[in-house]
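Record 1 of the preview.
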Amino acid sequence: MGSDMMDVEQLAAYLRRDAREVGKLANRGRLPGHKVGGEWRFARAEINHWLESQIHGYTDEQLTALESSHGPAVEEPLLAGLLSPACVAVPLPASTKASVLKELVTLAEQSWQVYDPEAILEAVRTREEAASTALPSGVAFPHPRRPLASALGESIVAFGRTGSGVPFGDSNGGLTDCFFLICCRDDQTHLRVLARLTRLLLREGFVDELRGAETAAEAYETIVSAERELLAS
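->
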């Protein structure tokens, strides 16, 4: 079986769940899968997209399990290694969804790891057109739907906060002002970053601290310190 396809047992290991539970979810239509010769088969890309749609409803325990299934068993700093101070902007000079995405990619270029900014911007735009990454908290996680290894030297994260809220597609109609651009070279790193950021959002006061940061340096320190405290708790 190709590495992009998984059976029930492989998917259970990938999700860190019991194989019987995975089988039941598939039979109930709760997982994106296809039957081949009477056996379930799951495309890795479809599963990753499904995970993205589910992850914001996970508990910290579930997010931690997801992280460990795609990386080291021992928790270690992740955002601190992917987000550089040069890739943080407060305020981000943008007032529309289109300008936010463009400015975020330009910000990411300050990492010197972006080889093809046009490809990344197009991929992020396409992903947002399919379904907005905006959350009710006023935070969004723009990212390409698939890894863009050829467009990046290393996986990176960029953060920008606009001076006021921007209509970004939140299903509740709210405005968004905090944006984490996630650009990874592989699915495993992408899911770990998404899980780690979601865990930070669960921490009381984190988003308020981001909004209270008056400079890019303060916002960077808020993110790095919150991750440090998360791992120490």
